[in-house]
Amino acid sequence: MSHFNDFNNPQVAALPGHLKQFIVDQHYEHYTPIDHAVWRYVMRQNYSYLKDVAYYPYIPGLQKAGLTIEHIPDLQEMNDALGKIGWGAVTVDGFIPPAAFMEYQAYRVLVIAADIRQLKHIEYTPAPDIIHESAGHAPIIADKDYHEYLSYFGSIGAKAMFSAQDFELYEAIRALSILKEMPDADEQEILKAEELVTYCQENMGEPSEMALLSRLHWWTVEYGLIGTLEQPKIYGAGLLSSIGESSTCMNKDVQKLWYTIDAVKYPYDITKPQPQLFVTPDFQNLISVLEEFANTMAFRKGGAYGLNKAVESKNTCTAVYSSGLQVSGNITDFKTDAAGKPYFIKTTGPTALALNNKQLRGHGKDYHKDGFSSPVGKLKGYHDTSLEDFSEYDLKAAGIIKGLGTELHFESGITVKGIVKNILSEAGKICLVTFDNVTVTDDNGTVLFDPAWGVYDMAVGEEIISVFCGAADREAYETIVYKSKTETYHARHDHKTKELHRLYQQVRNCRTNHGDYGFLGNVWQQLQKDHHDDWLCALEILEILDHEGVDPVLAAEIKHFLEEKGRSEPEYGKLISDGFYLIKHPVEQKLVV
């Protein structure tokens, strides 16, 4: 059965089309008995260990998010549970572009990678998976201050300037994470992919707003600690979902620093444990730091600073005039006066005009397909009043009358001479004046618009108050059409692996139905004969024998096998000893919604 994303959840239903393109079916039936065993092992470890080191809402938060220990979460159940706290969830195919990820957060929708890590990556995987997304992110969302921060972060991140280098790094990280989750990945290929990620990280140039915001996201949402430097608690999803690093991160050699705006100076490496972590005293501090950073961003600063960021970005960006008019396109040029204030802006290629994030009728990118240009600023002789604030009387006095010719002289030296075709106002502000047979020139006599080019739409506004990445009306403009062509790997199971799945399922059935414990001896024999490398199924058999008090001879044999495996293959040592601990100290309260 394919579990499609639940559009009955109001948050999910409200998603615009350009975000829905990333959604994939969960395909719950594709999860194998080994996948469920991996989920169960990690969740039992989390419950046992994290109840002492995780931020206090973690355990009740698991329940509020619709998660249980025994099986991988079903998206429908999660949506039903998250809907009660004003959030939703969708499944996607691995890493999605950062700008899209941020927008999902702004819509209060949790993005969950549908895949689950392999058994050999049970402690940590660089690839996003359902353990990381659901058992890491979802439980803390139940905290009101935290989910306010998360959605606020998304709304700011959705306006962040990003660069071509950001996309190159995203693709390199996505390719590496996919490779690392392939069962038979070539070690040389992984090495090459890691080198490419390192190269991209070291050759980003001046980090974009998105790159800097990604650092704040990493050191809070993914790897954040809360409380005191001496005894912090974990709330970051990357730590909560890593049974390895959630333990080692508390060691003294991992430096703990107070979380301030300085965190933007610390890049991160997704393939290695983090050398330092940041501690916030409370979630309100996260919002304060984010606000401090947002004040440095183009969407708040506007002006020449913002326009320069847009030109550097080479992506679709939006310039907002003080009248409220929004110009969305590839901003390629602008001119400034002696004081550094923009007095002319120009886009190249498809451009759209909007008000209040809604595209103006007849002003889409098909109409303005060859670009757009317009003056910014005041008319000469009107020092006290901006054109956007002109009354009917002011318009007539200035000769701006529909159907009549006029000549407008801007303080910058730009002259607009033509016949007024239309005047558009919104909320008492003049936003756009349309001309026929118009000539636009600057103070050097350079022609900026020629009558042969057709109708001229002149944006109105004294200044550019905001510049942000993406289009104002994203749905009409289809701003996030970028989608990776690299698909995640989906294993095809051979006969031997399918047989191992059956053995895991038989153990699960035995535990669930409390019966036929004698059959476990046969499963153990089969494991020894054909699957000698397995340790998790053996551990699950030992757990049942121990808890039910049956066949102590068989239990001793399996325990000896696991002890030897832990000694001879150190990579399994901690996993096996942690498993022994859980058998002796079982999770008392199963997570049942």
Automatic annotation (TrEMBL):
InterPro entries assigned: ArAA_hydroxylase, ArAA_hydroxylase_sf, Aro-AA_hydroxylase_C_sf, Aromatic-AA_hydroxylase_C
Keyword field contains Metal-binding: yes
Signal peptide coordinates: none
Necessary cofactors: Fe(2+)
GO-annotated molecular function: iron ion binding; oxidoreductase activity, acting on paired donors, with incorporation or reduction of molecular oxygen, reduced pteridine as one donor, and incorporation of one atom of oxygen
This protein's UniProt keywords: Iron, Metal-binding, Monooxygenase, Oxidoreductase
UniProt record, GO biological process: aromatic amino acid metabolic process
PROSITE patterns: BH4_AAA_HYDROXYL_2
Domain named Biopterin-dependent aromatic amino acid hydroxylase family profile: residues: 1-343
Pfam families: Biopterin_H (PF00351)
UniProt: Fe cation binding residues: H132, H137, E222
Entry's family note: Belongs to the biopterin-dependent aromatic amino acid hydroxylase family.
Name this polypeptide is given: Phenylalanine-4-hydroxylase
Source organism of the structure: Mucilaginibacter gossypii
